[in-house]
Write a structure and sequence with these properties.
Blueprint (H helix, E strand, L loop, with lengths): L11 H12 L2 E2 L11 H12 L12 H15 L9 E4 L1 H13 L5 E6 L3 H9 L3 E6 L1 E2 L5 E2 L2 H7 L4 E7 L11 H14 L2 E5 L27 E6 H4 L8 E4 L2 H14 L7 H9 L3 H24 L3 E3 L6 E5 L8 H12 L1 E2 L1 E2 L7 H4 L2 E5 L4 H11 L4
Parallel strand pairs: 1-13, 3-4, 3-7, 7-8, 8-9
Antiparallel strand pairs: 2-10, 5-6, 9-10, 11-12, 12-15, 14-15
The protein binds 4'-deoxy-4'-aminopyridoxal-5'-phosphate (PMP) and glutamine.
């Protein structure tokens, strides 16, 4: 194994899902829903399979999907992208992130990101021979995660090539505020840096959040330097389809495509027209999806609090983090490894998403994208801890 990959073992998601299968525990670790997405989308995929849309699609993605991605971004965020040249379909957001970093970073270039970070970020940065400059998100007095603006400013320097921003943020459920985004944008402009935004949870900002979702690309001077990434997995409950996309100015998007064509070439021909159907669903679909997830958030946050956890309620995503100190836990990794045996539930330690392990030592993450009865069962089991 090459040196640059040696620090990376099996992903924590694979480890914890295997543990759930082995022990028969309720799996609130890896984030995937246990119900299917919109029936119109599933029917369109079946139809595409049946009608022979099963060979290589065009390199940038099927035209209907690129057109739907453009229309969706115009409808929800007022962003205009040309489906021919400014949008490319990828094998999930994961490939888009990897291809963006590989296409934009020279070895030694620096990538500013926030920790805890989604695990593929560190690996993609390492594959490019780039260097990550994490800025730590910490629980603040108001129960929300925040960062020190001076630390963000200090993370930017002459080698900064890009900032990788995930909002709404996995695993904390943080939604970056307009002020925080304005600072990120200011620093990008000041340092001539690009931004790569991971917005896979763009439709999961709860109605009581302190801020709506604001794509960084909508800020002054940012559209021309931002690659905006999203995917179908979360919004349409089809994480196994791995259909994602990247939007941005043609020069940046073509850098992504240059890499993508040698990573996967193309992907998921019959699923692409189906995702196009889903993206065109009426606003009610997106609102109902969010409301359903918000009810589950409330159910799990309430249940975890009753079970004795100190809960950091999320404003977005389908994850909630909790501090295990209140339950006598000293270390989230140890806590999660023993949890299935102790009470038959799987969670994910967020410590593994920090360079500064101390900052995440006591924190663990639960996914609430599960049927209410599954959450009820998990909470019943977790109550046995106290
Ligand atoms: N980014 C974040 C923040 C995620 O939580 C995930 C996992 N769903 C991904 C990217 C990967 O998305 P995809 O499955 O579309 O590759
Ligand atoms: N994004 C999902 C999570 O954070 C799972 C992704 C994965 O398993 N790689 O749980």
């Amino acid at each position: 194994l090459v040196a640059r990959m040696r620090p990376f073992g099996t992903t924590v998601f694979a480890e914890m899902s295997a543990l759930a299968v082995r022990t028969g525990a309720v799996n609130l670790g890896q984030g995937f829903p246990d119900t299917d997405g919109p029936p119109e989308m599933l029917a369109a995929a079946a139809e595409a399979l049946r009608t022979g849309q099963n060979q290589y699609p065009p390199g940038p993605g099927v035209p209907a999907l690129r057109a739907a991605v453009a229309a969706h971004q115009r409808r929800f965020w007022g962003l205009e992208y040309d489906p021919d040249g400014e949008i490319v379909v990828t094998a999930g957001a994961t490939e888009a992130i990897a291809a963006a970093i590989l296409g934009l970073c020279e070895p030694g270039d620096e990538v500013v990101c926030f920790e805890p970070y989604y695990d593929s970020y560190a690996a993609s940065i390492a594959l490019a021979g780039a260097v990550r400059r994490p800025v730590t998100l910490r629980p603040a007095a108001d129960g929300r995660y925040a960062f020190d603006p001076a630390a963000l400013r200090a993370a930017f320097g002459p080698r900064t090539r890009l900032v990788l921003l995930n909002s709404p943020h996995n695993p904390t459920g943080k939604v970056f505020t307009p002020d925080e985004l304005a600072l990120v944008a200011e620093l990008c402009r000041e340092h001539g840096a690009y931004a790569v935004t991971d917005e896979v949870y763009e439709h999961l900002v709860f109605t009581d959040a302190s801020t709506p979702h604001v794509p960084l690309a909508t800020l002054p001077g940012m559209r021309e330097r931002t690659l905006r990434i999203s995917s179908a997995g979360k919004t349409f409950s089809c994480t196994g389809w791995k259909v994602g996309w990247v939007s941005g100015p043609a020069a940046l998007v073509s850098a992504v495509l240059r890499v993508k064509q040698f990573l996967t070439f193309v992907n998921a021909a019959p699923l692409q027209p189906a995702v196009a159907v889903a993206l065109a669903l009426p606003n009610d679909y997106f609102a109902d999806f969010r409301d359903g997830m918000q009810a589950r958030r409330d159910q799990l946050v309430g249940g975890l609090t009753d079970a004795g956890f100190e809960v950091l309620a999320p404003e977005g995503t389908y994850f909630v983090t909790a501090d295990v100190s209140a339950l006598g836990g000293r270390d989230g990794v140890e806590f999660c490894r023993s949890l299935p045996e102790r009470c038959g539930v799987v969670a994910v330690p967020t410590q593994v998403f920090y360079d500064d392990a101390e900052a995440g030592r006591h924190l663990i993450r639960f996914a609430f994208c599960k049927r209410p009865e599954v959450l009820t069962e998990a909470v019943t089991r977790l109550r046995r801890l106290s």
